[in-house]
Amino acid sequence: MHPYKRSARVSDLIREEIADIILNKIKHKTLGFITVTGAKVSDDLRNATVYLSVLNEEDADKTIRKLSESASFIKGELGRRLRMKFVPSLTFKIDESIQYGMKIDKLLNEIHSERNTLDEDEDLL
Predict the structure, then answer these.
(1) Model pLDDT, residue 121
(2) How far apart are alpha carbons 98 and 117 in whole angstroms?
(3) CA of 59: how far to CAs of 33, 54, 62, 75, 109, in Å?
(4) What is the pTM for the complete model shown?
(5) What DSSP string describes 91-110?
(6) CA distances from 87 to 28, 37, 66, 93 (A)
(7) Rounded to an integer, what distance in angstroms lies between the CA atom of residue 72 and that of residue 56?
């Protein structure tokens, strides 16, 4: 028996395959630098949400639109690569966890610098 659900294993596999398809098969010059950060497949394996990180945040909407237009091509490629009864329908979204993590890091750095400033002020007294 496998230690985790089938949908989680399929999610990992789909993430890897879609990253390879985007890198090697899709020839949009306007896509830019894309990283497939994750995929979440429903328990019935019929729907998949693919999370992306885009280097240039201004191009994020355009990138999602281009990939959504290419979803049927990507699904066809997945069908050829995966041995599954049904290939999930694909939805592309921007992974906001990276921006959230950067925001948390910025706040922690501000707190750290304020503490250092307070410590220096106490040393002067």
Answers:
(1) 62
(2) 29
(3) 10, 7, 5, 23, 28
(4) 0.76
(5) EEEE-THHHHHHHHHHHHHH
(6) 23, 20, 20, 18
(7) 25
Q: Exposure of 104 by Cβ count < 10 A (0-12 exposed, 13-18 middle, 19+ buried)?
A: exposed
Confidence tier at 46 by pLDDT (50, 70, 90): very high
Cα dihedral 109, 111, 112, 116 sign = positive
pLDDT tens across 91-118, in order? 999 988 777 888 898 899 888 888 777 6
Q: Is 70 helix (H, G, I), strand (E, B) or coil?
A: coil
pLDDT in tens, 47-88: 999 999 888 878 888 888 899 998 999 999 999 998 888 899
Give strand pairing partners of 91.
Answer: 49
